[in-house]
Write a structure and sequence with these properties.
This is Dipeptidyl-peptidase V. Helix content is 18%, strand content 33%. By secondary structure, it is of the alpha+beta class. Helix 5 packs antiparallel against helix 6. It is globular and about 75 Å long.
Amino acid sequence: MGHADLEAQVGLLPVDETITSISSEESCSAFKYVRPPGSSTVWREQGDFIFLQKFQPSELSSVDTLWSWAQSSQNLSPVTAKYLAYGEINDLSQIVDLQWKSQYVVEVAENLITKFDVWDEDNKFGFTAFQTEVDYSTHNWDMVLTDDGKYVFVALKSSAVFGHLANIWSGTTEFRAKGVLSKKLSSHNPWLNSKEVPQAKPFYWKGSDDVALEGVISYPKGVDLKNRNLLTVIVAHGGPASYVALVPRRDTLGLEFGHSRWRPFLASYGYLVFSLNYHGDSFAMAANGVGGIEWLDVETMIEEGISQGLVDPERIGIAGYSQGGFLAALGVTRPNNKFKVGVIGAGITDWGMLAATSDVPDIEATLGGGAPWKSGEPLYLKGSPIKDVKNVTAPLLLVHGNNDARVPLTQAISFVRGVEREAKPNITPQLVVYPREDHGFEERGNCEDVLQRVLEHVDKYLK
């Protein structure tokens, strides 16, 4: 008998690690994970197993960290899994078995930086084999350990600082030495003139809780940041995790274009664009707190930009896609907000409805603080922009895929209806629905149309 919600519950169910003998073809259950692990398991020569798992294994909204488990030498029953490292100020996205002396390497995302950390046979941190600089970023990488003890790694490297789209680079290092990506192996995107790509640089400030925060600002080539009061758009990233299915969601100094990559796009057309790595980038602090600390991060970033003379406080817009679209919707519904224009791409506007309709209902309920079927106070309303649509004064553009399963179209429709009925003066948002598109767009014509509409809308009300 089928169950309509079974697919949505797959990520909630325990997972058995099973070992099968090649000779006898017999199998035995070796370990039961509370939730599906965040990576494949590395079975080391030492006999133990290394894997990525949530910092709080039973939680849906916890960051991926490094764990191990081992079978007892007396019998085949496993001991309890042991937490090893990471998760407090960083996030893990991948683990690679180096297949020599039980060594392995993990990818660490920490603010604007990415590191490849090698761990030794004793499950001790060995060394950082590679670390990005702040003027570029990497993703889609791999590493091998050669017979002569060389650590050889490859990665896609791009730079918003130098105007370079992604190409494959390689590097080599030795034990306890930090390597660099020194050899370019591919020549993709030769059509791109780096002299025409907008500039980018890191941006640092203190959050409302006095924690040091990092983000990225992009601006047109040739613009002197000493000029004051530039046209500014806040573009928050999606996620909120640093990585979703190995795709980076945090803001770095890499260069990527796409239907939802609006920072370099808008900067190409004359805007100073602020993007931030807000609290909760790795889910940990986002759980039960959406609309709280991360919104204060947006506000403090704007305040810092104004204090440095970069931002014209009377000409600021806000835009974003997915979780970034949620922050855009939140921004335009804040009491007495000063945003002159807003763009909401596949954004969450009602966390309760999202839990009821999304393809990952339990994750969304955890992030939003609850679900409609839970008894007690509806905490999900606290961070839902739809309850504050009366505060909207900015002209709005909403773009959404018709077949979006992650953030269903009803999020945009209900928000538009609310704004039309409650906002004073009367605001008529523009909603554009794209046929055949899910949460991530695939058709070139639709992707181009999104970018064109975003630019026209921002230009119309901000320039």
